[in-house]
Design goal:
This protein has one domain: Beta Barrel (Porin). The protein has 1 helix and 8 strands; from the N terminus they run αββββββββ. The chain has one helix spanning 2-29; strands at 49-62, 75-86, 91-105, 108-124, 129-144, 154-170, 175-188, 191-205. An 8-stranded antiparallel beta barrel has the order 1-2-3-4-5-6-7-8. A hairpin with a 2-residue loop joins strand 3 and strand 4 (108-124). The longest helix has 28 residues, at 2-29. The N and C termini lie far apart (42 Å). Mean pLDDT is 83; it is low at 1-32.
């Protein structure tokens, strides 16, 4: 598991670094983007413009150890709702709510949800396409149940970090399609661990 975490950290560092590098290249090369074409629109987040709202749904994966003979598929159906805006053409801020759904574990279930605030580095790669990396903080709530005596169970909450990457395709100036990978560092009873959400969704721009 330590190797997997190190690999994930290296991967996200590479994704974020690539995003910033591509954003710098796009800035110097003048690559057009539908996301920031035309006059600046308002945003619900203070200090930003070109606002948007959206929603995504997909597969969640609880990266938890300690399966003790019962069903532990660690997979669920999750979703997220978000709103955001741009600080500049290449950087933005996003506020959201995520719910990772319910997964079977040790004769019980595990659930997680929370709120996140993230910074985005955005690289337009064509008129309609852009890639982005994100890094931020969360406040999460988890609930764990089990049928095994002595195994920790109950509710927990706390702060953590989140990071990820994604791709957006703008159908027009008002609507876009988006694919995301998000990793959340959550607090469970007796431990902290990661959970991932792989999702696709729709973005509506103001």
């Amino acid at each position: 598991m330590r190797y997997t975490r190190r690999l994930a950290r290296a991967g996200v560092a590479l994704a974020l670094g690539s995003t910033v590098s591509l954003a710098t290249y796009a800035q110097t090369s003048g690559t057009p983007s539908r996301q920031t074409s035309g006059p600046a629109s308002p945003s619900w987040i203070p200090g930003t413009s070109y606002g948007y709202v959206g929603g995504s749904v997909g597969r969640s994966d609880y990266d938890l150890g300690g399966c003790l003979g019962f069903s532990c598929d660690d997979k669920g159906t999750g979703f997220k709702l978000f709103t955001g805006g741009r600080v500049s053409r290449y950087f933005g801020v996003e506020l959201g709510y995520f719910n990772l759904g319910e997964a079977d574990r040790n004769g019980g279930h595990v659930k997680a949800q929370g709120a996140n605030l993230s910074l985005l580095g955005i690289a337009p790669i064509a008129d309609s396409f852009s890639i982005f990396g994100k890094l931020g903080g969360i406040y999460g709530w988890t609930k764990t149940s089990t049928a095994i005596p002595g195994v920790p169970a109950g509710n927990e909450d706390g702060v953590g970090i989140t990071y990820g990457a994604g791709l957006q395709y703008d159908i027009n100036k008002s609507v876009g399609l988006r694919a995301d990978w998000d990793r959340y560092r959550l607090k469970y009873v007796g431990q902290r661990d990661n959970a991932d959400l792989y999702s696709v969704g729709v973005v509506f721009k103001f």
